[in-house]
C-alpha cells in the first residue's frame, strides 16, 4: 500500500501491528493515544462530567492511599506485547516510579485501574479493557458511568480462580470500601468540582 501523501507514516500499522514500546517512538502521535490489540486508538475530547469525576476520584484516592502507593492520572500501562491502554486513573506501588521521564507502568506494578466511560469508549471500557486488565492480573478495576449526570461506580475484584473480574459493588451516592484500602467518597462532591 502506498501511503497517502498528507498522512503521517504511523497511520499505517506495520503488518504485525504496533507493539507497546512503539508509542514512545512514533513522532507527533496525538496525546492519550492507546494501543489495544496492536491498533492505535485515539481518544476524543472529554466532557465536563468525565473530567470532574476523574478529579474527584484522584483527589480522594490520593488522600486515602497508604504511603507505599501512588495515584497516577492518564498514564499508560503495558499489559502485554500489543496492549498499552491509558486508564483514567491507576494506583501503583510507589517503587514503580523509576524516573521523571517515565511514560508507562507495567501491569504487575498496578493495584487498581479506573475507567470513566465516555460515549466513544463504551465498548472498550465495558467489555475489552476489563478483560485485558484481568488477564494482566491487575487486582482491582472500577468502571464509572454517567447516569443522569450522577456518577455510578461499578467495583470489580480479580477472582484468582477464574482470572476474571467479579463485581463486588455498585455505588450510587457514596463509595465506601475497605479494599484495596479504606475509602469513603461522597460522590455528590462531583457537583462542587
From TrEMBL:
Any GO molecular function = endonuclease activity
Q: Where is the Putative restriction endonuclease domain?
A: 22-179
Pfam families reported in the protein's UniProt record: Uma2 (PF05685)
Q: Which domain of life is it from?
A: Bacteria
Q: Which InterPro entries match?
A: Nuclease_put_TT1808, Restrct_endonuc-II-like, Uma2
Q: Please provide the record's keywords in A-Z order.
A: Endonuclease, Hydrolase, Nuclease
Q: PANTHER family in the record, alphabetically?
A: SLL1072 PROTEIN, SLR1083 PROTEIN
Protein known as: Uma2 family endonuclease
